[in-house]
């Protein structure tokens, strides 16, 4: 296995992150979004948004992490302060994705551990993540890492015609012995 690591993203990582996000989201939303909408999940569009965000983050507490196999970006995770009204001192794992060709090699776990470390380092007391209600794989991955459904759910609009997808929130405390 190639050298595996997680680091803070650089602007030059935007194209690779855009590619990974496009592949991961097309897979995750295949049963939720119409084919014409899935076709719009283009790597360049995602890369453009990430490049812009990396150049001018919404806050100092917004961070994009990348998982690498050698020098190749194979996954990403974004962490930010939780915008949820009941979020209190929580950080939110906005997104976590690993390219299908790089899964089951520990990249997702390394990204999640780095997200927890980031949240803890920023003084958060918990890490939350919103997950599609029927995405048993992601829920199982997060549950195995110690996150649990906390009872919150929401309907997220996922198309221009108002179609929604149900999401559940998972969370875990991140405070612990120093």
From TrEMBL:
Question: Taxonomically, which superkingdom?
Answer: Bacteria
Region of interest (Disordered), residue spans: 152-178
- Read off the Pfam families from this record: Acetyltransf_1 (PF00583)
Query: What PROSITE patterns does the record tag this protein with?
Result: GNAT
Domain spans labelled N-acetyltransferase: 23-175
Q: Which InterPro entries match?
A: Acyl_CoA_acyltransferase, Bact_Acetyltransf, GNAT_dom
- Which portions of the chain have biased composition (kind: Basic and acidic residues)? 152-169
CDD domains the UniProt entry points to: NAT_SF (cd04301)
Key words of the record: Acyltransferase, Transferase
Protein name, as recorded: N-acetyltransferase domain-containing protein
| Species for this entry | Terrabacter terrae
């Amino acid at each position: 296995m190639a050298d595996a690591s997680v680091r803070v993203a650089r602007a030059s990582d935007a194209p690779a992150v855009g590619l990974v996000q496009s592949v991961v989201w097309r897979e995750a939303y295949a049963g939720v979004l119409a084919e014409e909408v899935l076709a719009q999940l283009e790597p360049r569009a995602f890369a453009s948004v990430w490049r812009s965000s990396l150049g001018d983050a919404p806050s100092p507490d917004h961070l994009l992490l990348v998982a690498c196999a050698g020098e190749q970006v194979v996954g990403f995770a974004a962490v930010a302060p939780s915008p949820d009204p009941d979020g209190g001192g929580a950080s939110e794992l906005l997104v976590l994705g690993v390219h299908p060709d790089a899964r089951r090699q520990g990249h997702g776990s390394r990204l999640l551990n780095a997200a927890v470390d980031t949240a803890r380092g920023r003084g958060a007391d918990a890490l939350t993540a919103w997950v599609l209600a029927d995405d048993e794989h992601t829920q199982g991955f997060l549950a195995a890492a110690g996150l649990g459904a906390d009872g919150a759910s929401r309907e997220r609009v996922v198309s221009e015609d108002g179609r929604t997808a149900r999401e559940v929130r998972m969370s875990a405390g991140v405070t612990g012995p120093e």
